[in-house]
Amino acid sequence: MAQVKICGLRRPDHIAAAAEAGARYVGLVFFPKSPRAVSIGEAADLAAHVPVGVARVGLFVDPDDALLDETLARVPLDIVQLHGSESPDRVAAVKTLTGLPVMKSVGLSDPADLPALTDYGLVADMLLVDAKPSRGAELPGGNGLSFDWRLLVGRKWLRPWMLAGGLTAQNVAEAIRLTGAPAVDVSSGVEIEPGVKDEALIRAFVAAAA
Ligand SMILES: O=C(O)c1ccccc1NCC(=O)[C@H](O)[C@H](O)COP(=O)(O)O
Description:
By secondary structure, this protein is of the alpha/beta class. It has one domain (3-209): Aldolase class I (TIM Barrel, Alpha-Beta Barrel). 31% of the residues lie in helices and 22% in strands. The strands form two sheets. Strands 1-2-3-4-5-6-7-8 form an eight-stranded parallel β-barrel, surrounded by six helices. Helix 1 (12-21) runs parallel beside helix 7 (199-209). The longest helix is centred in the middle third of the chain and has 11 residues, at 88-98. It is globular, with a radius of gyration of 16 Å. The mean pLDDT is 97. The structure holds ligand LARABZUK. The ligand O=C(O)c1ccccc1NCC(=O)[C@H](O)[C@H](O)COP(=O)(O)O binds at residues 7-8, 27, 29, 31, 34, 36, 59, 61, 83, 130, 139-145, 164-167, 185-189. Its EC number is 5.3.1.24. It holds the Pfam family PRAI. It catalyses: N-(5-phospho-beta-D-ribosyl)anthranilate = 1-(2-carboxyphenylamino)-1-deoxy-D-ribulose 5-phosphate. GO terms for molecular function: phosphoribosylanthranilate isomerase activity.
């Protein structure tokens, strides 16, 4: 059984569906280019709908200090997810600035990408092991793209981690079985079109990961 994060939620009823189904994390995207982006005001409203026991994850891509300060002044986040090209030093600085746990994404496509998980494991509180976006991709994540899960077999890192990238209700059980992932993260796999989540798909995904 793996914990579940549903990322890129934009509606209170979808947050409720995710929580009722048993998701332990919900993600709010603060990246304007994303079809899942929310404004700070929208996020403040959505965060108020998240039940106790479900962690509110704010997803940022190479944020500057001002964006983090402005967001956290209005949105009660529990975890900061960094999904850009933040260096290990920047991850440490964001932890200090925000006082929150930081989850750093690392994109994988081949074995040469694996050492980054060790490097970021020294500074981040959690790791998000995602597919590396294709060259020229508009978004650094949330692309519905998976990677060869066999890269992870038998590996251990210094921090708790989540598996992401192209997961769906159909493939998540096999992904967990193969990788031993203690937690999984999904966005596109519970959508009917980019940025449009579907309650039935959310419920099916959480059930399949359990
Ligand atoms: O979801 C986005 O739109 C997004 C935009 C910019 C950076 C990261 C983004 N998503 C990151 C996530 O945490 C996704 O859940 C993860 O990449 C998995 O996405 P998917 O393959 O679509 O399930």
